[in-house]
Amino acid sequence: MSEKEKVLKKADGLYSEAVHETPPNRTKLDHLVDLLCDHPQLLYEKFFDKGHEAASIVVDVWHGTGDMNADDNLSILTPPAAWGWTVMEETVCHAPPRELMETKYPELAQKFLKLAEHTLEHVESTPGLIVRRSVQALTRFWPEIINACISLKTTNPVWKQLYEKMLELAQVLMQMSERSDDPALQMHLVKFLETEATVFTPVPELGASPRSTLNLDMLPTAHPYIDKNALAKRGERARQQLVRLLPSSDHMRLCNTSFITAIINSIVYLMNLRPQFCQDLLERLTNWYAVINSSEQTMTHLQLVIISKALRIALLHLYTRRYMGAYSEVLESTLDTLGGPEWIRWQEQQARERERRQRQRAREREQAPRLPEAEGAHHSARWVPAPEDGQEDLAYQPAPGADTDVGMQSSDSTGAKRAAGTIDVDDDDEEKQMRLLEESAKRVKLEEDKEKEASMQPLEEEKRLQRHQRAQAVDREMEDEMQKALLSEKQFDLPIMDSMPLETRQEHVIEAIRRVAAGSEQLRKFIEHKRILHDVPSSLNLIQHQKVLANGLSTNSKVLEDSMVMLVRLVSNCYIVFYEAKSADEADPDMGPSTQWGELHACIDQILQSIIDSPRTHYELAMILLYELWMSVVITDPELKRAPDKPENKYTVLALYLQWCESIFDAIVKSSMELAAASESVPTSTQTTGADSANGAAVVPQQQQQQQQPDELILNFIKDAPYLLPAHLLKIEECLKSPKTALLGFTTLERAIELRPSIFNAGLDILLTYSAHPERATRVGCIRAVKKHYPNSLSAQRIVTVANTSFDIGMKGASTRATELEKKVKDIFERVDEPAPENEEKSAEAIEKKKAEALTLRKQEEQSIESGLVIHMELLLALSTKNVELLSTVFEAYKKAMPTVQIAVRRIITPLIKSMVNTPTKIIPVLTNFPTGSETLALRIIYLLCVDGARVPAKELVQAVLSMCDKRKLDGNFIVFIFGGMDREEALRRLPIVVSLLNNSEGSRVMLRESFARLTTSYLNRPSVLSPTQLLMGLHDPSVAALGNKAMEAISVYESMTKPDGTHMFSTAVFDTALKLLSEQEYMTSLMLHTADVYYRQRNGPVGTVIKLLQKLIERKVWHQDESLMKAFVHSFRVMQPGTLALVKSIPQDVLKRMVEMDKDLAVSIREYVGKMDEQARKPYKWLFNFVKTVAALAIGSASTVLAHSWVDSTKYDPVNQVSLGYARGYPGRSNPDINTEYTYLFSGSPASKPMCNPKQQANMNYSPLFPMATVQPGETIYTSWEQNGHLNNTNPTKVDILYYPDPNKQFADVSERNTAMVAGTMDFATDLTCYSPKNPSSVCFGSWTVPKDLKPGNVYHFVWFWYFNQNSAGEWYSTCFDLNVQESSHVVEVKPMAELVAMANPDLSYALGMTDSIKKELDKVTNLGEGTQPEGSSYSSEPPAESSESPVEIAESPAETVESPTTPSDVAEQPTSSAPAPTPAKCRPRPQ
């Protein structure tokens, strides 16, 4: 075993061990990735496809069925999928060898990008780990694909497609970074932004700056499809987006410590690689830090500490970079501002290092010898080597502002001075001089700033004074108003209510209401005053200038809110007093509109309006006021005897509370919707146009930088409100109507109904209503929320009822659309063309246009039907993941649906079934009890559960399906896909059931081929169920051989199969081994010889193996065994001549006589063989020579002495090439020894009534690939052949008629129809001009006739070959029924004179043994061949068009599966004929009797 094979085996073992554990072993998957990285050739050869398949399964699982993390199979599917993404990433992000780079690599990259696109389309329903892995892979792949497009310099369009697709996905990732609220995902998106910001910007002109592998300077200015300017704008946008992602008090999204730290590191890393942006990014970063550090509500103290430390460390590392010298001053200033122990320790370490170097230089100067000035000039300049590798750390970094390198202890200028001998020993501290210069520069800058500030002070002071004067004027006005109010109103003391008479009590209540109304007027003015105060800038300290009012309160903040609370509390007290009075008097005072209660409500309307205008700002105030009102409700009605949702009238306190609650809630919902809509519009607002695009930047308002996310304000109100009517939730319904605010709606409802049980039913009703919304995002979100409460809630039954009702509505709508579709298609073909076509060519063009129109309409409508059905079906499927029994509803509706609707159901249910591949036991109870009529859906489910060819079907599934088949007597279609999970004995026992499915149709052959494939497929760590040899032997089991023609057809299917490596399964080794084993069995069948015949003809196999078999049969005295075996022996003996003639000597004389009598053609060849023997050896065969003479005499004798029998061998015969292009119904071929007795159909005695076609052989259109139906075109001349059988007659030849009906739906039933049917042609049966060898009784004869021109292409017509044998006075006729597939074009046979054709040599009848592959390939070149549609009940069909995204195996779900495929142009061309008048015969004449 080679090294490569060892590695491959090890990799396969790791993968198998990892994925077959539950849950899959992630450690082993990681080890497998390491192994593949060490041997990358395995990635391109095998494991990329494995990884792609593993990752595809999770993406396919999504179908909007709720929280994917709650599904049982997630822990099983996710680890292999994550491994798959890692494998694909390693494959596409490492350049392969040159030959793979231009061949296989683009194909792999396309598959990778397609799967990534699918994943990003369904982020909400895909596990987070998978989404993050896909983003990580795309981030690495983005520079790689650009680099490849630049370096390859190829014109191959596939690279352009890859680049454009990646550009689209990059745009999607940019939008995701603006919307996503998942911190883990955002950290990967930040890396993507960092990559774009780095790659799509130029490298600064700094010699010490490192260059990345790809940057903007490397991109060519002129490239066929890469726009350098567009990429530069992408880099600018990515850089801006990195900063925008930092949270603030106005933008609190994703306030997560890890996420913020990742952004900071990315920004600092960008400054490191692209120092030209250092100043701008540093300024924005420090401004952001100053804002969040000064706001107590933005982050917690612990978060601020962590973020501050991360920022300081990142900037300190950036500062110590050698090539940041140009920006060291900015960084030093920033670090001084931030402070922190890290910066202080570094500075102290630098100071200690400077002192150490000073002491070292001092010691060196003291130890240096004193030399003369001229001689010491050279030695005074000393160079101190840099620290050794590995010793350099922060202590060796340059001092702030220094331009020298740490390794060089004296600068160039210092060295030059020392060399000149001009530096004094006490004045050589260069660093000290640099620090002095820096301090001087700082002082100068500080003085300039002070002067600038002093020049701006007078203007600012003047504006500040004006605002202050305005505020003072308002204060004086308010003080006067309050003083007047206090002086004009006398003190109001409310005595105890019980001691007051009725009239006095009512007067006090009215007085209280009047005073409250008067106080509200003052409050209105106070509100206006507050609005003026809001205009005063915060830089002016108003608290120092405000005065104390007459009531003892100041005009600072909170006074307005206190006044509002006071007024509402007074109103509440009025109600309390009123109800106390009512209770004391046991009376029911009037609260109508004529009273002052309406005025009391109006006095606080402005407070309500103020809250509604800005609900987000006044939220806490609104809660306080609502609680004040609700307390008065509870006080006046402690037991809440009155219905809370039905106040007595609109002036009660309950009505007031409900009015306020509804108004405030409505304002909060509207505010949240506006915020969500603004967040949704961010991507479009960032597009640049005009002047902005010229600058390469987009101006985005701060409000629009917020991302759409669930707003907590609505949820907080629902939690905090003292009482909330369920009807109030209808306000949230407005959110669900718009895609921009749908996320806000369903996330709020999802959490609200969990937190507040009283509104659970109302919220659930809304979610259920929008679970069938046309907008998918809305629908999926609502379904996810509903699924959380099923089945573990009291409303589970109601949820199921709604799901079933929605499904019924969808099915009814789909059925209606399907009916309308069929009517529209029918109308297209019944439409009369104006003007009418001028000729047949124009008419054919018109038909083709109608076909194309009908096909387009059908595709569009079928897509529409499926889309509509998905909307109403998705909720039921989502619930089925938790209760599979619900699928029984789908089965019941499916059996009644139209075929088009059934196709849609099977497609929609596919993702759900695929998600159960690892847990098939969940669906087995429903599957095994499917109702009659839904067999194709059950077959579809079984297929999907077994679709993975690399996985053995689950044992539970196999046992359940087998038990179901036995119990319900189901056909073999149901066990085709589970063959791979059976044991050998069970598979061989079930093999005859599958073989019995064969009915000469392509669908049945596809199913049998699939069965054979699954039986012979080897699985990982498990061999195949049967080897090819064992399968071939199983097909020769007596139980299979007893099926007769079906067993022979199964052998033909087996012969056509190939192994995965492309070699034929029916190889010489398999054939030899099988025949050897079969010949040793006690019981032998004729099927074995049929197999030998197929092997000899189709595989050009050696005759020697067959002769050995015949020799074995002779030894076992085949003539004493079954008669059918003897006939097959005689046939093989004749076909394999002359090799078999040597066996004559071993055959007894009586048996040889029997063989010659069974096949008279053997007599001549055996006689020739015997004639070559010596005289002594010929003596036992003297009878043979007499027998041959007798046969010849009979042939020359009267034709009337010979038993008349004949049939059609070829319905479309090519006499030039002597091949057959079509056969009759049920034609067994000349290789069948019983063809004479089985296929001859005689009408003896001129019967008045008898079936026109042979009931045993020709009752149905039973064609096969070996003997297919002929394809013709209208007006074509064709030849039909038969055998003479000794009936030559040149004087009075017998006649043959070709009978037909011009109606494709009309079939011949009775022989009496020969007098009413149309005649397409009449031919002489056997003359010198119709037979090749007239004197040979076995000569081939043929005649020509013309296909009627009135036949419509795209249909199959029924014909009868009818021979009038008029040499029998009693009457004797023969018939052969056949069909013609009429198309626009066909393979036309060359027409020549009959005399020229019959002059050719007599064919050897090989054309009657079946159509060869070479002829089929020649016929396949003809356009439209075999696309016709059959009449009802036809078993003939060309392979039907497959459903979209389904394999041919899926189409062949049952023998009648052709109804499910989309209608072809030929199908829609079928015209209704029920109301058409019967055609009049074109030619009628008396029939010979």
Number of strands: 10
Overall mean pLDDT stands at 75
Q: What structural class should be given to the helix and strand makeup?
A: mainly alpha
List the quaternary state of the chains: single chain
Main sheet: strands, sense, barrel? 6 strands, mixed
- pLDDT under 50 segments (min length 5)? 63-72, 206-212, 371-428, 531-557, 682-709, 1192-1204, 1423-1489
In whole angstroms, the N-to-C terminal distance is: 80 Å
Rg, Cα atoms, Å:
48 Å
Tell me the number of helical segments per DSSP (H or I, 4 or more residues long).
56
- The amount of helix comes to 40-55%
Shape verdict = elongated
Q: Which helices and strands occur, and which strands form pairs?
A:
Elements: H1 3-19, H2 26-38, H3 41-61, H4 74-92, H5 98-101, H6 104-121, H7 128-152, H8 157-179, H9 183-199, H10 228-244, H11 257-273, H12 278-294, H13 301-319, H14 328-338, H15 341-367, H16 373-376, H17 412-420, H18 430-488, H19 502-533, H20 559-585, H21 597-603, H22 605-613, H23 619-636, H24 653-680, H25 682-685, H26 690-695, H27 712-720, H28 733-736, H29 742-755, H30 760-769, H31 776-787, H32 796-830, H33 840-880, H34 887-896, H35 899-914, H36 924-927, H37 935-945, H38 955-968, H39 984-995, H40 1002-1015, H41 1028-1035, H42 1038-1041, H43 1045-1056, H44 1068-1079, H45 1086-1098, H46 1103-1115, H47 1123-1135, H48 1149-1158, H49 1161-1171, H50 1175-1178, H51 1182-1196, E1 1208-1214, E2 1219-1220, H52 1235-1239, E3 1242-1244, E4 1270-1272, E5 1277-1283, E6 1295-1300, E7 1318-1324, E8 1340-1346, E9 1355-1364, E10 1372-1382, H53 1394-1398, H54 1413-1420, H55 1448-1451, H56 1465-1468
Parallel strand pairs: 4-10
Antiparallel strand pairs: 1-2, 1-5, 3-10, 5-8, 6-7, 6-9, 9-10
